[in-house]
Inverse folding.
């Protein structure tokens, strides 16, 4: 079936390093992608989004790259901080008369001081 | 600006009971979506409400139902609770159905 999945379940980095979290999607009809950060005991927090007519989008310390040819999405976090430790989800948005987010299983990012 | 708020934060029920979870959408948002998040998994779409009408539904049985009110707040009702219904239930609101969704912190439902 169609799904959104992540390559790495856990990523451990040192404070100050750059982090890259990867995501594969299989539905070529998806036209909007979102990265969420979820801290323990909290709901997913919107980080950054990208539409399918773009290849790259930058925010504050974060960059999302979209490769539609291989159906791959990545989130880059510059100068990773301990506060970035959380589970990161990519989600694809499928428009079928309504909008629904399909989430992958998530990647745990652990940042050591 | 007040974000998405959900109540209660935690709830314990037994099998066969019914439960109602509540969500207040972010100011100005007319669309509410509900998700179920099992432990260690990503959220799974239950349904979406737009201007008081169900606007789409995921793969959940009819015992999962909802409402949206004129002020755009929403309820999720689950009847005949089963053990597998134990999960974090998340509400997300957006300015419109195709706009970014912003989540509340969820209701943790435990079924004994």
């Amino acid at each position: 079936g169609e799904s959104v999945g992540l390559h790495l379940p856990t990523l451990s980095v040192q404070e100050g390093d750059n982090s890259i979290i990867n995501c594969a999607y299989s539905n070529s009809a998806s036209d909007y992608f979102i990265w969420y950060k979820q801290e323990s005991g909290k709901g997913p927090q919107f980080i950054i989004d990208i539409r399918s007519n773009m290849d790259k989008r930058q925010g504050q310390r974060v960059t999302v790259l979209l490769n539609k040819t291989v159906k791959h999405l990545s989130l880059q976090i510059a100068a990773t901080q301990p506060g970035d430790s959380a589970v990161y989800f990519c989600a694809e948005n499928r428009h079928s008369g309504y909008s629904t987010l399909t989430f992958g299983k998530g990647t745990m990012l652990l940042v050591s001081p | 600006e007040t974000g998405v708020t959900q109540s209660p934060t935690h709830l314990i029920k037994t099998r066969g009971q019914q439960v109602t979870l509540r969500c207040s959408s972010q100011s100005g948002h007319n669309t509410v979506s509900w998700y179920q998040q099992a432990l260690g998994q990503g959220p799974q779409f239950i349904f979406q409400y737009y201007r008081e009408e169900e606007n789409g539904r995921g793969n959940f049985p009819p015992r999962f139902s909802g409402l949206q009110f004129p002020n755009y707040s929403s309820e999720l009702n689950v009847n005949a609770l089963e053990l597998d219904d134990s999960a974090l239930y998340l509400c997300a609101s957006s300015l419109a159905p195709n706009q970014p969704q912003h989540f509340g912190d969820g209701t943790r439902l435990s079924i004994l």
